[in-house]
UniProtKB/TrEMBL annotation:
Pfam families: FAD_binding_5 (PF00941)
Domain of life (superkingdom): Bacteria
PROSITE patterns given in the database record: FAD_PCMH
Protein name as catalogued: Xanthine dehydrogenase family protein subunit M
Domain annotation FAD-binding PCMH-type: ranges: 1-223
Keywords: FAD, Flavoprotein
Entries under SMART domains matching the protein: CO_deh_flav_C
Length: 316
C-alpha cells in the first residue's frame, strides 16, 4: 500500500471541498472494497476523506410515499429495516444474497453502488486492463471469461458490475442523490448512473470527480412479488454468474433486472412487455445484441432458465 494522508470531513460541503482541493483524494466510509484495492495498488489515493461522521445513516419516508436511504446506511441495517422488508423486499433479499455478514455490517449503501468489478484481470496487475490502465488492452477478451459479461460489453472491456443491491435498485427505479465540489446537488436516475464501457471503461458512473453520493431514494411501493434469485458457483459468499431481480404482479406483468451479465445492472424495459409470454420471450429481449465469449456463452441459456424459475416462484 502506498503512503497516503487521512482526515475526517465535518460536513458534506467540507468533504466535497476537500475533494476538490486535494488532487487524488478519495472518500472512504466502510472501505470494504477500497482498502482491498489499495493493498493491491490498483487504487492509490493521495488522501482519504473519511465521511462516516456526516450523518447520512438514516432511512426516512419521503413526501411522495417512498423511502430515502442515507448513503451511509449499513447494508445489514438496510436489509433488516421493516419498511424495506415490507415494501421493497427485493432489496432485502438482494443484500442478504451478497457478501458475508461481517462485510454487510461495514458496507454502506453508497459504497455498495460504487464497488468495482471483480474481473480477475482487473485485480491482476501483471495483466493488461483498460479499466485499470486506460489504453493498455483487455486480457479478459479471449481469456478466462466465465464470470464476465455477455451484453453491453465492448472491444475494450467485458467486465461485469458486481453489486446485488444495485440490481434491486434498478428494478425499483431508484434515484441517486449527490453533491458536487461546487455545492451543487443533483438527482440521478439509477438507469443513468452507470456508464457502458465503450472505449472508456475506466469511467464507470455519471459522477463527476469529487462528487459525493448522499442518499438513494426509492419511489412509492409498487406491490407485487419481490424475488431475487442468484446463481453462483458456490452456495454463499460468491459473486453472481447470473442473478435476477424481479417484481412480478398477479397478472403476470412485471419488472426484471439482471446481474452478472453486463457492466451495469441490466434492464431492458421493452423486454418486460413480454413478461406474460414467459421467460424465453423476455430473455430474447434482454439479450438482444449479446456478444458472449466461448467461456461464458452458457449465460444466455442460464438467464432464460433463471428467469423461468423466478416466474414459476411468483406463481406460487
Amino acid at each position: 500500500m502506498k503512503p497516503f494522508t487521512y482526515g475526517r470531513a465535518s460536513s458534506a460541503s467540507d468533504a466535497v471541498a476537500k475533494a476538490g482541493r486535494v488532487r487524488g483524494a478519495k472518500f472512504i466510509a466502510g472501505g470494504t472494497n477500497l482498502l482491498d484495492l489499495m493493498k493491491l495498488q490498483i487504487e492509490a489515493p493521495s488522501h482519504l476523506i473519511d465521511v462516516n461522521g456526516l450523518g447520512f445513516d438514516t432511512i426516512a419516508p419521503t413526501r411522495e410515499g417512498g423511502l430515502r436511504i442515507g448513503a451511509l446506511v449499513r447494508n445489514t441495517d438496510l436489509a433488516a429495516d421493516m419498511r424495506v422488508r415490507r415494501d421493497y423486499g427485493l432489496i432485502s433479499r438482494a443484500l442478504v444474497a451478497g457478501a458475508s455478514g461481517q462485510l454487510r455490517n461495514k458496507a454502506t449503501t453508497a459504497g455498495n453502488l460504487l464497488q468495482r468489478t471483480r474481473c480477475p484481470y482487473f485485480y491482476d496487475t501483471n495483466q493488461v486492463c483498460n479499466k485499470r490502465k486506460p489504453g493498455s488492452g483487455c486480457a479478459a477478451i479471449g481469456g478466462a471469461s466465465r464470470q464476465l459479461g455477455v451484453v453491453g460489453v465492448s472491444e475494450a472491456c467485458i467486465a461485469t458490475h458486481p453489486s446485488d443491491m444495485a440490481i434491486a435498485m434498478r428494478a425499483l427505479d431508484a434515484t441517486v442523490e449527490t453533491i458536487a465540489a461546487d455545492g451543487r446537488a443533483r438527482t440521478i436516475p439509477i438507469a443513468d448512473f452507470y456508464r457502458l464501457p465503450g472505449t472508456t471503461p475506466h469511467l464507470e458512473t455519471a459522477l463527476a470527480p469529487g462528487e459525493l453520493v448522499t442518499a438513494v431514494t426509492l419511489p412509492r411501493p409498487i406491490g407485487g412479488a419481490h424475488i431475487y434469485h442468484k446463481v453462483r458457483d458456490r452456495s454463499s459468499y460468491a459473486f453472481a454468474l447470473v442473478s435476477i431481480g424481479a417484481v412480478i404482479q398477479p397478472d403476470g406483468s412485471g419488472r426484471v433486472a439482471v446481474g452478472g451479465i453486463a457492466p451495469r445492472p441490466w434492464r431492458v424495459e421493452t423486454a418486460e412487455a413480454d413478461m406474460p409470454r414467459g421467460a424465453k420471450a423476455v430473455a430474447a429481449g434482454l439479450l438482444d445484441g449479446a456478444r458472449p465469449q466461448p467461456d461464458n456463452a452458457f449465460k444466455l441459456t442460464l438467464v432464460e432458465r433463471t428467469l423461468g424459475a423466478v416466474i414459476m416462484q411468483a406463481k406460487g
